[in-house]
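== Sequence entry ==
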Amino acid sequence: MNIIEKINTRRSTRSFTDKEVSSNTVHELITLGTKAATGSYGQPWGFVIIRDKNEIKSLSDEIKKYLLENMTDYPYFKQYESWLKDENFSVFYGAPCVIVIYGDTISHWYTYDCSLAAGNIMLAASEFGLGTCWIGFAEHICNTPEFKAKHNVPDSYKLVSTMIVGYPNTTQQKPPKRKPAAIFFEK
């Protein structure tokens, strides 16, 4: 499949098999992620890889507890409150691998650069038969000093993306039709 087909057919995956994603595959995805363009060639990214099922579950439980206790600070998650209250719901959807992407704030462009790396990882993952999904639920917990210290993330790095990776449990549905792009000016 060529890159245009990949872009047109890529979907977020929220249901996975139990099959592990090998360390070699994860490292290859990250290497491909770091082929992304960067401002001033800064390459400000850093990664945390979590494949331990117990840690993933514990992290999900911590995230759910935190969000429910602080829902007024995160009104955009109100629509998911019933999910967060469900003890069987995992914010990581049963994925066997979580990749957390951080950017070094010494670079003015770290958010853009790391987002481009995340996009590369998502597209490359589909080449390996893997599914991915950017997990917004994790944005607070994965950026805390405690989480960063536990995972050896330097203080100057800030969370950009938390992504799940695994082998899809279902056949991907056709992507929904997108709204036309808003073009504000063309000459």
Notes: The chain has a mean pLDDT of 94. The domain at 3-52+96-166 is CATH 3.40.109.10 (NADH Oxidase). The beta strands are 45-50, 97-104, 131-134, 157-166. Residues 119 and 157 are 19 Å apart (CA to CA).
